[in-house]
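Hello,

Our lab assistant flagged a job as stuck in the queue for most of the afternoon. It eventually completed. Since we weren't sure the result was trustworthy after the delay, we are filing this so someone can double-check. Below is the sequence as submitted and the structure that was eventually returned. Let us know if re-running is recommended.
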Amino acid sequence: MSESRSSSGYHLATELVHIDSDAVKDNYNAASVPIYQTATFKQSQADGSGGEYDYSRSGNPTRTAVESHMAKIMKADRAFVVTTGMTALDVILRLVKTGQEIIAGDDLYGGTNRLLTYVSQYSGVKVHNVDTTDVDRVLERLDSVKTR
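-- returned structure --
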């Protein structure tokens, strides 16, 4: 079976390993995107308006490169990368609307449980905890709720 090629003519495997280093500005012309391990960035203006990045939690050059690369691979205009699984879950939960329902496992990380409890209490979303090791129970619940 032959692997399909992207619009650039490269196989997906090639696209995955070749990150466009032009996605971020690098003063030292590194051959690949450096990993920026700093929390804060120097600012040229006292009010913080002088730089593209200020604090790594809100963005940094490494994350910009990953987002750009993911968007390219997924043929999307943009991609959004977060730093933790809990942040990813929070982003996804913000897409659930009042009156909709969520099916979740019954043996979850404590932080996930707290977030789902908060969502169910304050946003009108119903959370169903199901033993996800039992496929029949999951299918049963899927048939009985308004899931997306």
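-- support follow-up --
The delay was a queue issue, not a problem with the job. The result is valid. The mean pLDDT is 86. The radius of gyration is 21 Å.
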